[in-house]
Every structure is written in C-alpha cells, then in structure tokens.
C-alpha cells in the first residue's frame, strides 16, 4: 500500500505539473483528489491493513494530500500570474481607462408622467393620496351617484369579485374617501393617482388595467372658473407649452355640470384633443362625503395617465405600457 501511495502521489504531481491550462488543472485535481478520485479510493483500502499499520498509513495519505493540494494551488497561481502578465503586456490594455458605466435602471414612462403631475399639484397646495384598488360597490358606484341601472355597472365593464366588491373602475371613489377624511371641514385639495381596472378586450387603445389621476378641490365659493384655470395650468406645465382649453358639456353622474375638457396648442387653430373629464361635484356626492352642499362647492377631474404618456412619447399601442418589455422600456 505504501508503495502504491508513493507511486500515486508521483503520478498526480506529474499530472498537475503537466496541466496545460486552468481547465486541464481542474480535471487533474478532480481525477486525483476529488471525491471519486484515486487518492480516496486508495484510502478506502485501509481496512485491509493490519490494525497497527492503519494510523501510519492514514497519516501518510493526509500528508500526500496536503502536498498535492499545495501543488494545485501553486499551479493555479502561476496560471493567474501568467494571465495577468499577458494582459499587461497587451498594449491595448490601458490600466488608466475608466471602468465601463454600470447598468442603471430608470423610471417607467408612466411613473415619470405621474410624478410630474404630482409635482405640479403639490406646488398648488394639493395632497397626493392613495385609495384601495379593491373597492366596495357603494364607493365605486352608489355614493358617486351612479344608479343601479347605469350601463357602467354592467359586468361587461367591471371586474366583480366573488364577495360582491369590485376592482375599482376609476379613481373617483378616492374623492369620497378624501371628503370623509376631512370630516366636514373644508377645504379639501387632493389628487389621487392610481391603477384602475375594466373588463375590456385589450387592443391598441384599451387595456384591462390602466392609470388615472383624480383631482378634487372643495371649499366655499369654488367655481367652474377655478377649475378651468387650474386644469389649464396643469396641462400647460405637463406638456411644456402654452395651450388653449375648452369645456364641452358631458354627462358624468357624479358632477353637475359635467364637462369634457379639450386642448390644443395655443394659437395653432388645430384639432381639439379630448384630455379629461371634469365638473362641479354633484350635491349628492358632497353629501355622501359628509359635506354640506349649501355651504361648500367643489370641482373634480379624472384624467388617463397612459394617454398622456402615449401622446408625449408618440407610442402607438397602449399594451406596451404594462408589457414589461425591456426593448420598449429602454427607449425612455
Ligand atoms: N371617473 C371618470 C371615468 O373614469 C372620469 C371623471 C370624469 C372623473 C369627471 C371626474 C369627473 O372626477 O369630474 O371616466
């Protein structure tokens, strides 16, 4: 056994010394020193020795192993040193060159637009608030004066949960939560950005999940003129250019009067673009929010954020927004 050990160590040392590259070295190490290697299989024969020789043999194996491990480590270092020397000798390697830039993420185009809207309204003294994405039927519909027979309540448009709640179909229920939080004491000035959900067949202009921002301002003597002024200011800042806005009467159950607001670049005489829905908060909605319609008035608006981002970046399909596709995202 002793002689076999010596021969084995000799052969292993030769294999290590003869390894031409790091891969060959790894293979030699595995073959001689690995779990299924030669050295261990020799060690397993220890039981065949007379008991009084076993300890000495075990020590001899361990000593051989230590020598071989050292030889492997030394050879590995030699390879690394040679590699480094080759790199340094290569005149194309410039140790003074700055490292390549680290890959950095950036904000989603929708997040960029949302944050801009938030900045604008924070500057006007509005709060940015959050509301639940799973809503009660009461908050999503009834308390917003959307009657039971209204087509928007049809299961075509709304995701109903088994417990009778809904995935909110708009951010408008956050109006009510904001009013109730004010506990009868105006003013209320808030915006509420967030995800909304509709049971839609997705196509280039429809998604089951999209984004809105709701706005609400309530105080004594608040008028349509205040609303038009604030909304025009917001759109001007958001689009970075002077704009003309026009209010076109439109029915939304939770406002009276209600409007759609259209916009075009100032002085362009061009086509009007529909931007958002707005109006004076319906007295019933004020009452549901715990406010006295005889004492206060307010205006509200709801705007699609995806639409703004699509327009701004000339994106042709809404479905890109939630795609998570890096080929899309890395363009912004
Ligand atoms: N909730 C409406 C929608 O999703 C948008 C809207 C219209 C919100 C008028 C408002 C408003 O606050 O006053 O289509």
Description:
With 332 residues, the protein is of the alpha+beta class. Helix content is 41%, strand content 19%. The protein has helices at residues 2-18, 22-33, 38-43, 51-89, 109-123, 137-140, 173-181, 224-239, 283-288, 305-313, 326-329, and strands at 127-128, 134-135, 166-167, 188-197, 209-219, 243-249, 255-265, 273-281, 297-304. Strands 1-4-5-9-8-7-6 form a seven-stranded mixed sheet, sandwiched between helices. Strands 2-3 form a two-stranded antiparallel ribbon. α1 packs antiparallel against α2, α1 packs parallel to α4 (51-89) and α5 packs across α10 (305-313). The protein starts with a helix and ends with a helix. The mean pLDDT is 92. Bound molecules: 3,4-dihydroxyphenylalanine (DAH). 3,4-dihydroxyphenylalanine binds at residues 170, 172, 214, 252, 255, 258, 277-279, 300-302.
């Amino acid at each position: 056994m002793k002689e076999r050990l010596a021969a084995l160590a000799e052969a292993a040392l030769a294999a290590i010394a003869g390894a031409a590259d790091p891969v060959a070295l790894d293979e030699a190490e595995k073959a001689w020193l690995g779990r299924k290697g030669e050295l261990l299989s020799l060690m397993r024969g220890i039981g065949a020795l007379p008991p009084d020789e076993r300890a000495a043999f075990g020590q001899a194996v361990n000593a051989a192993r230590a020598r071989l491990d050292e030889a492997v480590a030394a050879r590995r270092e030699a390879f690394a040193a040679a590699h480094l020397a080759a790199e340094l000798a290569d005149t194309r390697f410039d140790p003074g060159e700055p490292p390549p830039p680290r890959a950095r993420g950036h904000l989603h185009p929708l997040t960029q637009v949302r944050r801009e809207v938030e900045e604008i309204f924070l500057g006007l003294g509005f709060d940015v608030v959050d509301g639940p994405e799973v809503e009660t039927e009461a908050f999503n519909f009834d308390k917003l004066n959307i009657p039971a027979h209204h087509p928007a309540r049809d299961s075509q448009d709304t995701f109903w949960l088994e417990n009778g709640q809904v995935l909110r179909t708009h951010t408008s229920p956050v109006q009510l939560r904001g009013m109730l939080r004010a506990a009868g004491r105006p003013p209320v000035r808030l915006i509420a950005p967030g995800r909304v959900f509709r049971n839609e067949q997705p196509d280039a202009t429809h998604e089951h999940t999209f984004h809105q921002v709701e706005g609400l301002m309530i105080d004594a003597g608040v008028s349509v003129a205040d609303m038009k002024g604030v909304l025009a200011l917001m759109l001007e800042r958001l689009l970075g250019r002077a704009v003309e806005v026009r209010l076109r009467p439109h029915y939304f159950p939770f406002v009276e009067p209600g409007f759609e607001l259209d916009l075009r670049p100032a002085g362009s005489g061009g086509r009007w673009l529909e931007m958002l829905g707005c109006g004076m908060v319906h007295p019933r909605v004020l009452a549901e929010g715990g406010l006295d319609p005889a004492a206060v008035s307010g205006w509200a608006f709801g705007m699609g954020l995806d639409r703004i981002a699509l327009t701004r970046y000339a994106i042709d399909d809404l479905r890109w927004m939630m795609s998570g596709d890096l080929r899309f995202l890395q363009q912004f």
